[in-house]
Structure formats: C-alpha cells, structure tokens
C-alpha cells in the first residue's frame, strides 16, 4: 500500500479506518491518510511531507517524530516547522530538498494539495468525484478497493490504444491511466483539490541560465562531478552494504565507481545480468569496473519462467507491464541484491535522458540547412561510434562505408517524416540534398540510394504490420466520447526543459521500480535523478555534449581518472534485440492460455496482425527495425492479455 488517503467534501461520514501496528494514521473529521512506516524508512533519502492547518493561518508544527505518532503530522525530523503555505511551496520547490510526495490539508476550507516528485519516483494516483470526495494512493490497487468507485471505473480504451503503439513511448507522460476516472499526477506538478474542481500547477521549474558563467567542457565536467557525487552521497546516507546494478555501460559504471569513492570501506556488491546474446554482452566491461572498485561481482542468469513473473509483476503494478525486456530481467537483479544482504541497489537509470547525448546539435544543423557542417559532424559520428545496429560487422567496414551508412540512416528517418508530415515539394528538396551533398543516390557499396530507401519503406509497410490495434484511433475516440484526451499541464517554457525526462516509457518504468522495491521491501535508488544535476545538463550546449560525435562529453569529462578508460571512452551500447526477441517468443509459448479466442485482449488487438507478427519474429532473419517492432507487438499483446485477465 505505501500510503493512501481519502477526503470527503460532502456530509457523508467516513468509517474510521483500522490502523495497523506497522502504519501511521492521520485522521480528521473529513478524511484520513494511512502511511506504512516501512515506506518512510525505505524512502528516507527522499521525503514524505504531510501538513495540516486547522484555521489556515496558524503555522504548521512538527509535533512528533513519525515513529511515535498515532495521529498528527508527519515530517522529516530535520524539518521543525512550516511557517505558512508559502513556506510549504518553497520546500517542495527546493532542488536541494528533493521530495517523493508532499500533501497539504487545510481543515478550515477543506482544500487538499498533493505534489509529486520532479522525476515521478513515487507514483501518485487519484480519483476526484466533484462535490463528493478525493482519494489518492501510491498504487492503483488501493484505489480500486474503495467502495465508492467500484461501480464507476472501467477500462480506458484510449490508453490501451496508445500502449499498443510504439510511437507513443516517447511522448510526454500524461495523466490518463488504464482506468477511466483514475488519473496520475504528472511529475513536478501539484494538484489543488476543492469540492467541485481541481487545478494543476507546476512547482518544479528549471533555470539553466544560472550556469551561464561557465562555458568550457572542463568547467561543465567539474560541476557535473560535484553534483553527481552529492546525489550519490544522498542515496548512500545510512547505508552500509552497497549493491549496484553494473551492466558495464557508462551510466551504471559511473554510479558504481563514484559510490565506491564515497564508501571506500563498505562491503560492495555489483550485479550483472547475463543474456547469452553476443550483441548485448558487456561482461568484460562490468568485470573491469568491479575489479577497479574491489567489489564482489555477481552474474545473474534471468529466469526462463517469464509468464509466472509477468503475472506476479502485473498484480503488483495494477497496470500492464511496461519494460521492454522480460520481467525476469529486473526482478532477478533486485532479488539477488536482497539475498546478498545489501541495504540498497543503485542503478544507472535514466542517465541517457538526464545527461543528454547532444544529438540535437545535428538536428539544429539540419533545420538551418547547414549541409556542409552537417556532413562533417555526421562523419565524426561515424568515426567515433560503433553502430552495430546498422551493420553487425561495423568494425570491419571502411570509413567511407560507415559514413554512407550514417548518412543514409540520418536521411531515411527524415524522409519518412517528410512522407508523413511535410509537403511533396519539401520531400523532393530533401531528396536533392541527399543526392547532391551526401551522394546517397550513387552509393552502391551500401546497396541503397534514395530509390532503395523508398523501396525499403514500402516493403516494410506491405510485408509486416505497422500497427496491431483492432481499431483506428479515430474509431476508439468516437466509441468512447466520455474519455478525455491524455491531459498534460501545458507550459511551453517548462515543457522545453522537461519533455526529455518526463516521457511515458521512463516514468512508467519508475513506477514499476517503486512497486518492485515495495514488493521486495528493498531500497532502489537512481542517482542520475537529481534536480540540480539535470538543471546543469540542460545548460550544457549541444555542441559540447556532442563531443565530435562520441556524445555525453560532459559526463565523460567528469569521469576522467575515475572510470577505466575503456569504459569512459566506449562509444557502443549493448543491443538487446536478440535477447528481447527470444524472450518474447518464449513468453508467447508460455502465455498461450491468455491468447485463447475468448480472451478480452482481442477486443483491442487485431488477432490476424498479432499472429503475423509472431510468424515474422519466428523467422531466422529480420531487418533490425522490423524485429524490434514485432517484438514490441508480441510483448505488449501478452502483457495486456495478462492484465485484462487479472481484472476478472
């Protein structure tokens, strides 16, 4: 449960809840909040704040430490008082005082304010029935148990349609959930509930201009190292036996090495998941880092019992699984860390989004039609990276072939965009640039050319499904007129800074990490999620981030002398396509009972398209993009089928 609350705006009395010995009860005439003590202990590096005011004017006082409280306020012990509502707002906006959840209840006017952390590390779901009640919780299952809403909730077909669309993974996280009437608070925002309405407000705002006084890679690297170390330190406060997920990638390796600098004498365990997939094999990097920091290196073999793990995790989440890989992948890491008696498991999630790669530098050159500079930088990208996703024999290619593959891939994506969104005139113009400046048309060595790019696109569309939904989006909208569009509190200036981190895939994964931590009664921490660190990364110019094509140059600079050079300067990343494909087919074999003709999943998924996706995935050879899309379709269909079955 973690925590849940309900407040009424009408005259109907609430039954007094039973408060268990492992819980704290905050009970008022119009509502109550119940909090598990283990949640407060587990979230000790963040803060759960609860305040109430009887007259709206008196200060909010911290009267009792939560370990001794039965009724009253809950505050982190270091906070002694809240002077007024402005002070409340100042606290939740303080980037040096990151919160997980903050709640303000005013008994005089019945107003309720709830704020969610900047990165959504703790879920916050709610139901608001005007002139009746507001209920909220850290998990959907707790809301589903409320008697008042059992008769009004139903499955949200629009959310399901989006869930089955790969293109919706990177869109900004919205308030809609898989249930009508149950919404999610968007990270970095708070909602003010009154009897007849609710109002969204952004409380977390970023100001990258405060770093305008620095402008060199060395300076950005030093600031990054300072702020990143502070974030890791905060995660490790009070922890003695340290655990860290260590894939061998740049992010997890940076977390592990900095953690060891902070805790030089602590028992230290690192965990690597073995996929038995050559393209995903980073074991040698993981072992090199483990040896450098003198940590016990554990190799975890994910369970092959995918379906049972999926069923169990779906029950925990109350929503369909979101992670792209088998659910046994993350579960095995957490379970082994707990069995090793670790006090914490550190991860490198979501370093890619927080740090930024600098790819927008290329986009800016494209938008400015600076073709010659773009060609130079794409050549740098080809020389300083390993693109095994474009050719598994990348290191065996000539420099010219590598460059042409990068040119082709870059323009292929923009040609698709042109075909879908721009005028025919712009499309022809882009073809001319690709031909005359980048020589794509005459490049026979990579078997492509503009004609081949168009042929590949047409062939992909005709031979494999590019969608799997049973109905079009318009049909779903027309059939569900009462379902609102996914809501997102729009603030263009702030959205410019948050869209790179507050997208659906990332925040849903955060919510799943939270549920897994609760299930295993274990602390999981993501040091890259730090408001000050993210604000700094926003300030780093794209050109500096790009780093002549290697990307994330400010992080690499910060890790000089800390990471092994082979890891700090590595340009490639693990490719999990084969592992994901194998686990998806295994899940299909194990999950056939959920795919019978009477399964409710076929109310949302086109059965013929699904089985076509399975057949394509069963072939020995597929284009990497096709394989990725078919894996997505198979996984999402089975994830959805298991969830729909759990609702019976």
Describe this structure in a few short sentences.
42% of the residues lie in helices and 12% in strands.
Number of helices: 25
CATH superfamily of the largest domain: HUPs
Name of the CATH first level of the largest domain: Alpha Beta
CATH architecture annotation name of the largest domain: 3-Layer(aba) Sandwich
CATH topology (level 3) name of the largest domain: Rossmann fold
Mean pLDDT: 86
Count all strands and give the number.
Answer: 18
Structural class by SSE content = alpha/beta
Span from first to last CA? Answer: 21 Å
With strands numbered from the N-terminus, the spatial order across the biggest sheet is 2-3-1-10-9-11
Domain count: the total is 4
Measured as a percent range, the helix fraction is 40-55%
Roughly what fraction of the amino acids lie in strands?
Answer: 5-15%
Shape: globular
Which sheet architecture does the biggest sheet show?
A: 6 strands, antiparallel
Low-confidence stretches: 55-80, 442-449, 483-487
């Amino acid at each position: 449960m973690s925590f849940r609350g309900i407040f009424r705006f009408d005259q109907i009395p609430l039954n007094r809840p039973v408060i268990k010995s492992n819980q704290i009860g905050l009970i008022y005439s119009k509502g109550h909040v119940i909090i598990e003590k283990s949640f407060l202990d587990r979230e000790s590096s963040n803060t759960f704040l609860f305040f109430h005011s009887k007259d709206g004017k008196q200060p909010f006082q911290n009267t009792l430490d939560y370990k001794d409280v039965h009724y009253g306020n809950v505050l982190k012990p270091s906070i002694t008082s809240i002077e007024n509502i402005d002070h409340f707002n100042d606290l939740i906006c303080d980037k040096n005082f990151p919160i997980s959840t903050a709640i303000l209840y005013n008994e005089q006017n019945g107003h309720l304010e709830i704020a969610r952390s900047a990165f959504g590390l703790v879920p916050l779901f709610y139901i608001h029935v005007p002139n009746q009640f507001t209920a909220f919780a850290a998990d959907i299952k707790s809301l589903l148990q409320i008697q008042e809403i059992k008769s009004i909730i139903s499955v949200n077909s629009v959310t399901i349609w989006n869930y089955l669309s790969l293109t919706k993974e990177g869109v900004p996280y919205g308030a809609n959930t898989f249930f009508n009437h149950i919404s999610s608070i968007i990270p970095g925002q708070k909602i003010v509930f009154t009897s007849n309405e609710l109002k969204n407000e952004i409380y977390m705002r970023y100001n990258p201009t405060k770093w305008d006084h620095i402008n060199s890679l060395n300076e950005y690297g030093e600031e990054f190292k300072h702020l990143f170390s502070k974030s890791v330190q905060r995660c490790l406060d009070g922890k003695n036996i340290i655990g860290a997920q260590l894939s061998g990638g740049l992010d997890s390796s940076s977390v592990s090495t900095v953690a060891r600098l902070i805790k030089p004498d602590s028992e230290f365990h690192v965990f690597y998941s073995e996929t038995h997939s050559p393209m995903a094999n980073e074991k040698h990097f993981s072992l090199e880092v483990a040896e450098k920091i003198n940590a016990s290196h554990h190799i975890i073999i994910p369970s092959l019992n995918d379906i049972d793990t999926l069923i169990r995790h779906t029950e925990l989440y109350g929503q369909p699984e979101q992670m792209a890989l088998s659910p046994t992948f993350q579960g095995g890491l957490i379970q082994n860390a707990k069995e090793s008696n670790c006090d914490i498991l550190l991860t490198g999630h979501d370093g890619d989004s927080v740090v930024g790669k600098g790819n927008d530098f290329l986009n800016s050159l494209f938008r400015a039609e600076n073709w010659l500079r773009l060609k130079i930088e794409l050549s740098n990208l080809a020389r300083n990276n390993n693109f095994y996703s474009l050719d598994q024999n990348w290191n065996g290619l000539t420099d010219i072939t590598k460059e042409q593959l990068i040119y082709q891939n870059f323009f292929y994506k923009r040609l698709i965009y042109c075909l879908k969104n721009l005028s025919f005139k712009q499309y022809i113009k882009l073809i001319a640039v690709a031909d005359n400046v980048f020589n794509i048309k005459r490049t026979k060595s990579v078997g492509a050319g503009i004609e081949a790019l168009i042929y590949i696109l047409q062939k992909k569309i005709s031979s494999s499904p590019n969608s799997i939904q049973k109905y079009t989006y318009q049909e779903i909208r027309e059939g569900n007129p009462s379902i609102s569009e996914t809501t997102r509190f729009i603030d263009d200036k702030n959205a410019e800074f948050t869209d790179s981190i507050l997208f659906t895939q990332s925040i849903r994964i955060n919510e799943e990490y939270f549920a897994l931590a609760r299930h295993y009664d274990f602390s999981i921490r993501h040091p890259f999620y730090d408001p000050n660190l993210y604000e700094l990364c926003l300030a780093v110019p794209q050109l500096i981030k790009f780093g002549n094509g290697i990307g994330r140059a400010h992080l690499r600079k910060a890790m000089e002398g800390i990471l092994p050079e082979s890891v700090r300067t590595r340009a490639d990343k693990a490719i999990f396509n084969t592992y994901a494909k194998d686990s998806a087919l295994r899940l299909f074999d194990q999950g056939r009972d959920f795919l019978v003709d009477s399964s409710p999943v076929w109310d949302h998924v086109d059965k013929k398209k699904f089985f076509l996706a399975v057949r394509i995935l069963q072939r020995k050879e597929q284009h990497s993009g096709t394989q990725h899309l078919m894996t997505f379709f198979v996984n999402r269909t089975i994830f959805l089928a298991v969830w729909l079955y759990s609702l019976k």
